[in-house]
Specification:
Elements (H helix, E strand, L loop, with lengths): L2 E9 L24 H15 L2 H4 L1 E4 L1 H10 L1 H18 L4 E2 L13 H19 L15 H9 L4 E5 L3 E2 L9 E4 L5 E7 L1 H10 L6 H9 L6 E6 L10 H9 L7 E3 L2 H7 L7 E2 L27 H24 L6 H7 L1 H4 L5 H7 L7 H19 L4 H4 L6 H21 L4 H8 L3 E6 L3 E6 H11 L3
Parallel strand pairs: 1-2, 1-8, 1-9, 2-3, 4-7
Antiparallel strand pairs: 5-10, 6-7, 11-12
This protein binds zinc ion (ZN).
């Protein structure tokens, strides 16, 4: 009997563009390329796309990354779109699944933000692939029931979790299984084989027989086997990974296994076995969600800056939202609908003036329209400041925490331009307690705070 196997690639890069200019800075370490997106495109995205690997893989690609590919690497972008079409022609369903817009850890986000992130992720997917998504990848596989409930309400059918995030009878391998939702109904989950998924990340560099490698590991298994890992494993993290993946995915008449994709498999295997999820867990940290919240031993050294940075941003988000609602409630019956629809402006399929007019019956002056446009744009940057990458690593001095602080400051600048309220000084004050060491030239270690990062950004972009 041939064994069904899915290989799922999660393609994603932390966003790196300057929120004030929209441009990518030149990045040290990416040479001879301008930045890491360019480098990883050359090593992974492009060769995998043109080898046809994405036609047979199950995959998701971060909305910010695919937006960058559209702008700077259009051939690769078009070939990725084509991959989903090729699969659809062959199987009747596509093989790409969606992802929330900004890699936010959804269980740590308030309900309103969960909804926006998921709606924006769906809208981005539709724009890129020309169809409704069936499944959604959760950033870091971070899960709770309210998130699954919102996915279900938005018309999505499944997500992927790792086996350590699930309780129950997992004899059916990857499933799919069903999870009972608090307000009724079920949501389907596929469960990845954690060990095998991690193993591929190490073994994909071995110039040995990829098919024999996989055959040996899935011998006499029950049900579907799911290997889900970062797509960058294939070519970027592992140099021989593109060829390894090509070999694994190739269709062969006498093969002991058959490659299937999640959406296709779900059609013929509706879930019947019910399992429970371990809420507020993720695939890359065994301390629930501490890596992105209080900090945990997954990163070395003092991580006390993490909760301080998060609470400073939470407080700022409250203030931005309060001002937003205060300004819009008089003239907009559904102020959050305007935010949810703003993704069309980001994607270039709507203009903000028209969107504002469509959302209110009030006659607004040009000045009012301009200021509402800035407030809703501030909501975009306020969403981006919760990108999980900001908390993933050990040091505050890295580009990722700087990125979330810069996004916050761009939101502050737009609010100030719109309503002449300066949220900057209080935010800077809240950042002072986020302290971390950094190594300067000559290996001298100094302690700095997130307020220093704020000052550096403010020097380049006066608020
Ligand atoms: Zn951890």
């Amino acid at each position: 009997m041939t064994q069904p196997i899915t290989i799922h690639g999660h393609f994603y890069q932390p966003p790196r563009e300057d929120p004030f200019t929209g441009e990518m800075p030149r990045e040290a370490g990416a040479e001879p390329y301008h930045d890491f997106n360019e480098k990883i495109t050359a090593e992974c995205y492009r060769p995998n796309a043109f080898a046809g690997n994405l036609d047979r893989l199950s995959f998701n690609i971060g909305p910010t990354l695919i937006g960058w590919l559209d702008r700077y690497q259009h051939e690769t972008y078009a070939r990725i779109q084509e991959a989903d079409r090729v699969h659809r022609q062959a199987h009747g369903v596509g093989n790409a699944i969606a992802q929330p817009a900004h890699h936010t850890i959804l269980p740590l986000a308030r309900r309103r933000d969960k909804i926006t992130q998921i709606k924006w992720g769906i809208a981005s997917f539709i724009q890129r692939f020309g169809r409704q998504p069936r499944g959604m990848w959760l950033p870091e596989m971070a899960v709770d029931l309210p998130t699954l409930e919102i996915l279900s309400r938005r018309g999505l059918s499944f997500t992927i979790l790792s086996e350590e995030q699930v309780r129950g009878d997992l004899r059916e391998g990857a499933g799919p299984y069903r999870v009972r939702l608090p307000e009724g109904g079920y949501f389907a989950i596929f469960v990845r084989d954690r060990h095998l998924s991690n193993q591929i990340s190490f073994d994909a560099n071995q110039p040995k027989d990829a098919r024999a490698w996989l055959t040996e590991r899935v011998h006499a298994r029950q049900g579907l086997t799911l290997i889900a890992t970062d797509g960058e494993t294939f070519g970027h993290h592992q140099r021989h990974g593109v060829q390894f993946l090509t070999d694994l995915l190739r269709a062969e008449a006498e093969s002991p296994y058959q490659i299937v994709t999640l959406t296709d498999y779900l059609r013929t295997h509706p879930p019947t076995v019910e399992v429970e999820i371990n809420e507020r867990t993720a695939w890359s940290c065994s301390h629930h969600l501490a890596r992105w919240d209080t900090g945990c031993g997954c990163t070395p050294g003092d991580h006390s800056w993490k909760p301080v940075l998060r609470s400073a941003l939470d407080l700022l988000a409250d203030e931005i939202d309060a001002l937003y609602l205060y300004e819009l409630q008089r003239t907009f019956s559904r102020p959050w609908q305007l935010v949810d629809q703003y993704i069309d402006v980001v994607l270039g399929s709507a203009d903000v003036g028209t969107l504002i007019r469509e959302n209110t019956s009030a006659k607004l002056t040009t000045g009012q329209t301009l200021s509402i446009g800035k407030l809703v744009q501030a909501q975009l940057h306020r969403q981006r400041m919760f990108t999980s990458c900001g908390w993933f690593f050990e040091k505050l001095a890295r580009p990722e925490p700087r990125y979330v602080i810069a996004q916050a400051m761009r939101a502050i600048q737009l609010v100030k331009q719109a309503v002449d309220v300066d949220l900057g000084p209080d935010f800077r004050e809240a950042l002072r307690a986020a302290r971390s060491s950094k190594t300067k030239t000559g290996a001298l270690t100094v302690v700095h705070s997130a307020a220093d990062v704020y000052d550096e950004i403010a020097a380049a972009h006066p608020l």
